[in-house]
Amino acid sequence: MNIQDAIIEKTLLERRLQSFIVEQLAKFEADTGLTPSSITVEMLDVTVMADFRPNTKAGRVTLDFRL
């Protein structure tokens, strides 16, 4: 997987996560009758380890994404 593919995959995962959160909030509202006045979503960092060929002195690069 190259960097561009990884960025596309990250974007798709973010969209799926957003859809899931919206669905869960809608279910909560339907079940309880309560409407959230504000929503805060805190996510853990996503760390991607990427090995580059041929290996350089660094050999490995860590990419940190915040969702």
Describe this structure in words.
By secondary structure, the chain is of the alpha+beta class. It is built from 1 helix and 2 strands. Strands 1-2 form a two-stranded antiparallel sheet. It is elongated, with a radius of gyration of 18 Å. The mean pLDDT is 70.
List the helices and strands and how they pair.
Layout: H1 3-32, E1 46-51, E2 60-65
Antiparallel strand pairs: 1-2
Question: What features would you highlight for this structure?
Answer:
1 helix; alpha+beta; two-stranded antiparallel ribbon; 67 residues; single chain
**What amount of the residues lies in strands?**
15-25%
User: What is the averaged pLDDT score?
Assistant: 70
Number of helices: 1
Strand order of the largest sheet: 1-2
How many domains? The number is 1
| Poorly predicted segments | none
Alpha-carbon distance between the two ends: 20 Å
Which outline best applies?
elongated
Largest sheet: 2 strands, antiparallel
* Secondary-structure-derived class: alpha+beta
Which quaternary structure do these chains form?
Answer: single chain
The sequence of SSEs as H and E is HEE
Summarize the structure.
Helix content is 45%, strand content 18%.
